[in-house]
Amino acid sequence: MSDTNNNKETYPADKFLLAKPETGKALIPDEIKTITEKAFKTQLTKKHYKGEKEIKNLKLVGQDEPVDLGLVAIWQSGNVEHFIKQTDLAKLKDQTPKVYVSQDKNIKLLLALTEQQQFKNKEKKAEASFTLKEYAKLRGYTEKEIKVGGKFLAELKRDLITGAYTTYRINEITINGKKYIAHGIPNFYILLEPENPKGRWQVKFNTFYAESILKILKGEAKQYFTHYLKEVADRKTTEKPYLHFFYNQLIYRKQAGKATIPKKVVNLLKEMGVNIQVLKRPYKCFEILKECLIYITTNYPEELESIYFFNDFNKEKEKHLPLSSLKALEDFNYKDFKEILKVIGIKDIREAFISFCRRAETRALPRPEITPTLQEDSELLISEILEWADRCIEWDKMTTLTREGTEQFLKDFLRYVGFDRLNELFRQEAQATYPNAVRFLTKTLKRELEQNKKEKQEIRGFKRDYKLNSRSDKEIKELLDDFKVD
Length: 486
Prior knowledge:
With 486 residues, this protein is an alpha+beta fold. It has three domains: 1-231, no CATH class; 240-363, no CATH class; 374-483, no CATH class. The protein is 45% helix and 16% strand. It contains 19 helices and 14 strands. The strands form four sheets. Strands 2-3-4-6-7 form a five-stranded antiparallel β-sheet, covered by helices on one side. The protein has a four-stranded antiparallel β-sheet with strand order 11-14-12-13. A three-stranded antiparallel β-sheet has the order 5-9-8.
């Protein structure tokens, strides 16, 4: 608390060198993204205050011993409760905690600082240091503004203090395809504030978060998301929260060179925090989406190359809008745009399904690395496929698929068909223009399994009929292929 996967850039651990927000980036662990995406969705006001409560013997995630928080102030927004000890409220000058856009940016900036300062260190720690001036510059303020000072510096301090003092309870969170109530989610970090205003602040991430950060620092993370500090420093996306949350949607769902899984426009806007009054009006929804598309393609062209509109999740009809068309949206009103949607049989933009495509990258999806045994290789591959499926499938809405059944099916597939073929098929599907997890699991793999079983039956029959039991299955298969035996 306050006292008074890619090319890795390295910097001295004792000096802050993220001088250019345009090139800096945060690698966000999936575990942290899962929490921030839920906890930082609403700007708290007095109406969210739910009073005080005595909390004792609370087991915080990642800590060995339960703690007594004592008397806490509680704010609730949707499915999330935010707790701060009454004795700590003075640090926020009795204001509500900042758990909205600015807090999301704060956590991402602190992740970036930690990663940049720790990557080259032999002993890696989930911690970072910085001056308030350095921090403010990366939040988008100019040298002149910082020198003059003002209310914004107090607000930046409030961001830092909120992250150090706020704990959480999330009433509905999905982990590995299963829904949970998450009790005892701890504050993100310990914050050391220097007595000298020009001194260096220190942030030390708590164990629950540090574990996933260290996996990134050691190159062991299976999944993470890249968020460029250019957006963290963009004050426009702070002033207009839906622009920030639209950017989040892009980075959390993007697949290099491929279109993302289609999402109904109205659901996309809900996840961006667009209020209910706007959601009730199609033309207002269009205006918000239009502003987001124009802003992102103008300011972050690397994140969005084109979009697709579909009439349904199965993509029976589509309308493709390349980058040039997105920039031309400025001249469209909703009446004009409805003519485009008519091509795919959509009358209300809220009912359309939208998919985003960013520029292709030359780096192929890698095979699992550093796997000493085939068994460990296989376990990693199954884990990777299931994590991919979790992002693509809402398991609780499936009638024929379950996550447990899918895991067993993948193990059976490995036993019959082998690691190399499953790995090859998975890479092909994951890098397809329109990857489809349900199709992959229910059709692609099942068809392959049936074909494999058929081939093995033919090989056994051939061995038996021609008394070739001493020959390997591989040799017999090559022989059958040479003779083109059906």
